[in-house]
Design goal:
With 741 residues, this protein is an alpha+beta fold. The protein is 17% helix and 28% strand. The chain is built from eleven helices and 26 strands. The protein has helices spanning 44-78, 186-193, 197-201, 254-271, 375-383, 386-390, 443-446, 454-471, 548-551, 566-569, 639-656; strands at residues 104-110, 123-126, 133-139, 142-151, 183-184, 224-228, 239-243, 282-285, 291-295, 306-315, 321-329, 334-346, 415-416, 430-437, 483-494, 504-517, 520-531, 534-547, 599-603, 613-619, 668-669, 674-679, 689-701, 705-716, 719-732, 737-740. The strands form two sheets. Strands 13, 14, 15, 16, 17, 18, 19, 20, 21, 22, 23, 24, 25 and 26 form a 14-stranded antiparallel sheet that branches. Helix 8 (454-471) runs antiparallel to helix 11 (639-656). It is globular, with a radius of gyration of 33 Å. The termini are far apart. 43% of the residues are buried.
């Protein structure tokens, strides 16, 4: 049975006998003397002793009655057939002084540096206030939050809460486990509270070091919970619905509602596998924002309350967390709303979380292998604390800009299985295996008409190489200066077409060379991507890790000269016309619509090889989506976006030249062709204009179809910075023949 505690201190009795005086009467200050003619009262010490004995007897009786009531309510909670109604649950983990509920509008504000307290250890007590309702949330005598608000009838009339600003491209969280059950009833919730994660949610949710032991009533305020993941809910981040125990007519208690919301979000966190990247975590409240509370007059409500929680944020930084906006009602009327409720999973005090530390051994690959670094480290390498990403002993820089991974759903790396060699060893021909779990509906496939774009293939390859290079010691170089990572050049080959949706891509990165330079270092890698043990993408690449002065010396591909695109250098200019429309073939959409808003010109017999030419002029928008994803404190357009832009322009060229038509399938990357790229500059938000051109170089026709080879370049503000060769596309169906320069 839980311990009973009193939130208020015992009042001091001013007339308590003074042991030093004995039975001698002492008149407390301010107490008047007896009136003349009246019998003398008993000595104050005698009266005090009698009153004290009476008070002690009353306290003992009240305490005994409270114990009996507490035991009866505990038994009622543990009996599914006779659970107490929501509005009279004084045994909820958060308990408050009894009060007749009524409509309320309040705000819960967390105190600065609030201790990390498990939600089932919090207590709420009402405090005196002349003008408004007030409570304190306490833990072991310390105030960790304050609640202030006003009651109103029949409903609050305060100014509505600010509307949340929804991102145009929300970050869809990829769960760390695939739960076998989305609907949990009372038996499953009881087993979950007992720690049976594998039996309830499936083997993938079982942790090597299970979460902190829960109380038997950890999910007592829930009868049934239904969890849905990313892509659902008002914000696209997921949704939790729950049924609370049957209630009586009347307004629900906000404390019980807040507790029920915490319990439901805890279930959601376990369902999404957030506990798998921490050793023995406990669940604590989300304290990064206030909790807004609105309880309406619910005199007409009866029966079980239904809870709907729209997930606002779910992620791993700074620690695994779930935050939601929650509403309660009976299916017809909204009885209460809670805004900004969240729970955070935290490791035990003193546990280190860096790669290879004791806290890392809790995470396994889908096939059961232990990993060196996992999703928590990748998330922090993307937008969190680099001492978590690489280990406190290795991260020694306080500079703002350091080598990072892309952010949000541009991050395409989850785990590093092999531990790197000792810092500074840089053994050549040493391979490291990493993994990426592809979502079942990845945005880059949905926005590319169902095909995996080259952008995603390049990011899967280059992010793995960058993290391997950083783990080998690049992250510790030049700790007193800003340091960034840039891809410089590479080649790739698509070996076979695969459907990656819902599968795990295994990346193998082999370090070929490590070259230190003044203010920089270069690393060359070979890489392979595989699914199900079969390789589908290979290549080589070079990453450079640069200090700011060295990076500023980049002069583009033409030695700093401003060389205009081919069409702008022709005199007289050739006849150029707009490209043909896409017709029945769906064009890339959303973030991959790189040609949207661009001025595109096509020259039928133009270009370096007189086979066809396309020029694209487009302003650079500082709010373009990739600047917010790549990288934290160092926004830059990924080179993979430039490559994808040139592939789209090559398709425009084929369609405008009549090689691709509505009667033929959409051109796709040719298998076996080697793509080559060179980057000698970067596009950042302060740049004004982007230009890109594609020259059709060769067209090969066979009975099976047509293969076209092209090459292209990208400019920023007149400086050519990207060159891409052997852009190979194939169109199925055709006649034998060949055109080449």
């Amino acid at each position: 049975m839980d311990d009973l505690s009193f939130d208020a201190s015992c009042p001091v009795i001013p007339w308590w006998p003074d042991p030093a005086v004995g039975d001698t009467a002492r008149r407390p200050p301010g107490l008047p003397a007896p009136a003349p003619g009246l019998p003398a009262p008993a000595p104050y010490s005698t009266r005090a002793a009698a009153l004290a004995e009476e008070l002690a007897a009353t306290v003992r009786a009240a305490h005994h009655a409270a114990l009996r009531a507490h035991q009866a309510l505990q038994e009622a909670l543990l009996a599914p057939a006779s659970r107490a109604p929501l509005t009279v649950l004084p045994t909820a983990p958060v308990a408050m002084a009894p009060r007749q509920p009524s409509a309320l509008r309040a705000t819960l504000t967390w105190c600065p540096a609030s201790p990390m307290v498990p939600v089932d250890d919090l207590r709420v007590t009402e405090v005196a206030s002349a003008d408004e309702e007030a409570w304190e949330v306490r833990h072991e005598g310390l105030t960790v939050a304050r609640v202030t608000g006003r009651r109103a009838a029949p409903a609050p009339t305060a100014t509505p809460w600010p509307v949340r600003q929804l991102s145009t491209y929300p970050r869809h969280f990829r769960p760390l486990a695939q739960s076998v059950r989305d609907r949990l009833g009372r038996p499953e919730l009881d087993r979950l509270a007992a720690g049976d994660l594998a039996g309830v949610l499936g083997a993938s949710c079982a942790a090597a070091e299970p979460p902190r032991a829960l109380s038997a009533t950890a999910f007592a305020l829930l009868d049934e919970v239904v969890v849905t993941g990313s892509g659902t809910g008002r914000h696209g981040q997921g949704r939790v619905t729950a049924t609370t125990p049957g209630g009586r007519a009347g307004t629900p208690d906000w404390v019980a509602l807040l507790t029920a919301a915490w319990q439901a979000l805890h279930v959601h966190a376990l369902h999404q596998g957030l506990h798998l990247c921490l050793p023995g975590p406990s669940v604590t409240p989300w304290t990064e924002e206030c909790v807004h509370i609105e309880v309406r007059d619910g005199a007409r409500l009866s029966g079980p309350l239904l809870m709907a929680a729209d997930i606002v944020s779910i992620g791993l930084v700074p620690r695994p967390h779930v935050v939601a906006d929650v509403s309660f009602g009976d299916g017809r009327t909204i009885a209460a709303r809670l805004r900004g409720v969240g729970c955070v999973l935290r490791e035990p005090p003193g546990r280190e979380l860096g790669p290879g530390d004791s806290g890392c051994g809790t995470r396994r690959t889908p096939d059961g292998r232990q990993v060196f670094a996992h999703e928590l480290h990748m998330a922090h390498a993307s937008e969190g604390d680099l001492s978590v990403a690489h280990g406190a002993a290795r991260h020694r820089s306080a500079c703002l800009i350091r080598p990072r991974l892309p952010r949000g759903d541009l991050l395409m790396l989850d785990r590093m299985i092999d531990a790197p060699a000792a810092p500074g060893s840089h053994l050549s021909d040493t391979s490291y295996v990493t993994e990426y779990d592809v979502p079942h509906a990845p945005w880059y496939v949905d926005e590319n008409a169902g095909d995996v774009p080259h952008l995603a293939l390049l990011e899967m390859s280059l992010q793995a190489a960058a993290f391997v290079g950083a783990s080998l010691g690049a992250c510790t170089e030049y700790p007193d200066q800003n340091l960034t990572v840039r891809n410089l050049e590479g080649s790739s080959r698509l070996v076979r077409a695969v459907d990656l949706r819902g599968r795990t891509v295994r990346q193998r990165t082999t370090v070929l060379s490590h070259t230190p330079l003044p203010g920089a270092l270069l690393q060359r890698y070979r890489y392979e991507l595989a699914v199900g043990g079969e390789t589908f993408y290979t290549g080589e690449t070079v990453h450079g890790f640069f200090t700011e002065p060295v990076l500023a010396q980049q002069q583009g591909l033409d030695g700093g000269r401003l060389v205009a695109p081919w069409l702008r250098r022709q005199s007289p200019p050739p006849l150029a016309r707009p490209p043909r429309p896409t017709g029945e073939h769906p064009a890339p959409s959303g973030r991959l619509a790189f040609l949207e808003g661009a001025d595109i010109s096509f020259v039928a017999d133009g270009g370096r090889y007189s086979l066809g030419y396309v020029l694209c002029d487009k302003p650079i928008d500082p709010d373009d989506w990739y600047f917010g994803r790549h990288f934290l404190h160092d926004p830059v357009m990924p080179g993979s976006c430039g490559v994808e832009l040139l592939f789209q322009m090559a398709r425009v060229c084929l369609r405008s030249a009549g090689i691709s038509t509505d009667a033929t399938p959409e051109p796709r990357p040719a298998l076996g062709a080697e793509l080559r790229w060179t980057y000698r500059g970067q596009i950042q938000p302060h740049h004004r204009a982007l230009q890109a051109e594609v020259h059709l170089r060769e067209v090969i026709r066979t009975d099976a179809g047509t293969t076209a080879l092209a090459e292209g370049s990208v400019w920023r503000d007149g400086l050519r910075i990207y060159a891409v060769d052997d852009i190979a596309l194939e169109v199925l169906g055709g006649t034998t023949g060949r055109r080449a320069s």
